[in-house]
Task: structure prediction
Amino acid sequence: TKSVVAPMSLIVSAFAPVANVRLHKTPQLSGEAGNSLFLFDVSAGKKRMGGSVLYQTQSQLGEESPDLDDAQKLLKLFELMRKVVHSDLINACHDRSDGGLLATVAEMSFAGHCGVNLKAPSVDLEAWLFNEELGMVVEVSLANRAGFWAEVVASGLESITHEIGEVTEDRSFIVTHENGQESWSCDELEAIWSQTSHFMAMQRDNPEVVAQEFAQIKQNNPGIKPVVNYDFGPDLIAVYRDQPKPQVAILREQGVNGQNEMAAAFMRAGFECIDVHMQDLIDQQVNLMNFSGIVACGGFSYGDVLGAGLGWAKTILYNSKLRQQFSAFFADETKFVLGVCNGCQMLSGLRSIIPGADHWPDFLHNKSEQFEARFSQLTIKNTNNIFFQGMSGASIPVAIAHGEGRAVYQCSKKNVAHVAAQYIDNHGQTTMQYPFNPNGSEQSVAAVSGANGRILAMMPHPERVFRSVQMSYAPAMWGENSPWMRMFYNVRLFVD
Result:
């Protein structure tokens, strides 16, 4: 019997330190009409189509696949990209990959909610648009063209750098070529681009919410538009810089993993953060009354099994000493409490011992029937909650990551006076539409307030986005802090 040796492949991965996370670019086009699109064509004009997505859709394999013929060009491109990013000479970038140039630029336009006009050279149009040779597309503003091109020339890569089009304001995707022009609606292309994922999600997830998300593609969607009209700079707590730091207990249970970023946010606001595990309280090694505040963190408590936060709550409710200690803390007018994600669900489970929490909802499995990790927008309500003082009316994007975030009220207790924050769509309106309301929460509830404003239970994760660089999108004018830093400064002002 003839033996067959299977071909082997080597997968190489690597990592490196990032000295400054502020220096980053995304594929999102700016939407500034007239900005140029440049292609770095590492293949130096080759358009090998073997194994391409286009050929696969045509049941073809091809004879020759893309390859790296000149490693020096790739090294030079890497160094060039480092320079133009550090010098802020480009607005956006995206590698040419699956689907070729057309898919690359289309994805950039989808992210930027704008259009493009690609100008094809006099070559095989199909191969130019769909080859998957190594390359990079960048957006360059009119003001930066000269500086950008000077860096290209200095790198010796001008022969493989080609201006291929421009950004347009309208939502049209245009390909101009020697025989005329082809034009599509970007919404139409995005619906095609999303169709396969949509069909998969219809089989896997709740089809009702999947249909809502797919329908949003062809609806008027301006993208995330934050509205922030308050100060969130560090001078808010300048008076406390040389004063003793109040202590806050960063409370966690088995499986919780959000304690580090939570501590970082509170430390930035002038607190001394103490790591407190539930076992420390059970063993009576720590007394909560020694702290100014308690923060119950999120991130997979009890392995994030169903009702994990409720299990955490029962650890307290069914232990008489813990119940007494938490009850006393909740009732103390000088103390504050924050619960995020699993911590939010935990506080909801403790509402029987939290003053003013009778009308809080339960937090149940997401309507989508899936874990939701998104970048959603909230509006801050006008309440007496100490965390949100001065923030009412703001629309702010925030990280969410939960499987059980759907606020559901008992029919006899649906009272929304305690609602501190709600999910909104990209027009700033409270919504039940998925994915803007990512979990199907009644009344679009994202956060609730209790104990006369001293306790906040919040499903989204402000501690993961208290710096602007932590956000997947943030206006440049915000600077170092994100607007969420205000809530941490607010609680420092409360502890006076």
User: Anything to note?
Assistant: The chain has a mean pLDDT of 94. Residues 186-204 form the longest helix (19 residues).
